[in-house]
Write a structure and sequence with these properties.
The protein is of the alpha+beta class. The protein has nine helices and eleven strands. It starts with a strand and ends in a 5-residue tail after the last strand. It binds (3R)-3-hydroxy-3-methyl-5-(phosphonooxy)pentanoic acid. (3R)-3-hydroxy-3-methyl-5-(phosphonooxy)pentanoic acid binds next to helix 4 and helix 5. The site of (3R)-3-hydroxy-3-methyl-5-(phosphonooxy)pentanoic acid has 16 residues, from helix 4 and helix 5.
């Protein structure tokens, strides 16, 4: 019997990664074609809260899991936030978001768990604490609509909870991932400020190519920190140049001037090369995408591996996707940013 369902999309950073750690703005968008889903069901009496990570074939007992287990942390923080004692529930988690590829898989899984638990808590409360026997197996059409009763969790609270879990993976993340995933819409993000949703004047298409190289964000961020410490003047200049691109891109996107974006992506990629977070494989993917007709291309996320994004059209998308695969991409997702699904 299903008590609660939570879902959350993947994401890509369009512009501004790394510089965002140093107070500059970044633009990020949800990718709704891939998502994480958590389903809460009644467990056996006395079983406590158990998470079944179906993709990994791993069962996690929240009560006894280590303090740094991310899924258990998401669950514990949710129970604390909702002031719930540990229920006898089983949470099944599945995700179609590629793991460790810069598409926010970790943040999305956490967000899905938080939403599913909040919904299960609300339903249990509505049925007078008899949630496990409520018999209500009607699934909500989309759990992106948050519960509206006492266990209401605004996107800002969800984002803050997911941020706490993200710290386990990333050390001191800027907060861009949890923000775009919790709000589920394109955001202009500056660390420490409320996120601003930004308008998309005309939808545009991206090919998202996974280089297949696992590259922990924490390491790239640490290397940039050391390089910045050694030459602050140069790095502050580079971050300012990225910030100028983010501002231009925000204007271009909101005015629907899609053709300008390609050039801005190329410019941001060149700056990321200078910041030291590209790698030969990402540069080869960028070159392949451009020669196949992409209007621009850049790495997205932590770099040194992970994803490359290329600006494509209906006509160029298949050719660019083929060229990216031929140049070594292990997976290519073509998505439209700003479509009604977003
Ligand atoms: O690798 P991702 O997609 O999680 O993005 C990391 C973005 C950085 O700016 C490099 C780090 C951060 O915390 O914002």
């Amino acid at each position: 019997m299903i008590l609660g369902v939570g879902r959350a999309p993947g994401k890509v950073i369009l512009f501004g990664e790394h510089a965002v750690v140093y107070g500059r703005p970044a633009l990020a968008v949800p990718v709704t074609q891939v998502q994480a889903e958590a389903i809460v069901e009644a467990g056996a009496p006395g079983s406590g809260l158990v998470i079944w990570a179906a993709d990994l074939g791993e069962e996690i007992a929240v009560r006894t899991a280590p303090a740094d287990q991310p899924l258990a942390t998401a669950a514990r923080l949710t129970l604390a936030k909702l002031e719930l004692s540990e229920p006898d529930w089983r949470v099944t988690v599945r995700s179609t978001i590629p793991i460790a590829s810069g598409m926010g898989s970790g943040a999305a899984v956490s967000a899905a768990i938080v939403r599913a638990l909040a919904e299960a808590a609300r339903r249990s409360q509505e049925s007078g604490g008899r949630g496990q026997e409520s018999g209500d197996s009607q699934l909500p059409a989309s759990s992106l609509q948050l519960p509206t009763s006492n266990f209401q969790l605004p996107a800002s609270d969800l984002s803050a909870l997911v941020y706490e879990v993200e710290k386990l993976h990333h050390g001191t993340p800027s907060g861009v991932d949890n923000t775009v995933i919790a709000f589920g819409q394109p955001v202009y993000f500056v660390r420490g400020r409320p996120p601003q949703p930004f308008p998309i004047g005309r939808p545009f298409m991206l090919a998202i190519a996974d280089s297949g190289i696992a590259s922990p964000t924490k390491i790239a961020v640490g290397d940039v920190r050391r390089a910045w410490e050694q030459d602050r003047t140069r790095f502050e200049w580079l971050f300012d140049a990225v910030a100028a691109i983010v501002e231009d891109a925000t204007k271009a996107i909101s005015r629907g001037e899609v053709e300008k974006l390609g050039q801005l992506m190329d410019g941001n990629h060149a700056l990321l090369q200078q910041i030291g977070v590209s790698c030969p494989e990402l540069d080869a993917l960028a070159a392949a995408a451009r020669s196949a007709g992409a209007l621009g291309a850049k790495l997205s996320g932590g770099g040194r591996g992970g994803n490359l994004i290329a600006l494509v059209t209906e006509e160029t998308a298949p050719r660019v996707a083929d060229a990216l695969r031929a140049a070594g991409a292990v997976r290519v997702i073509v998505t439209t940013v700003g479509s009604s699904a977003q």
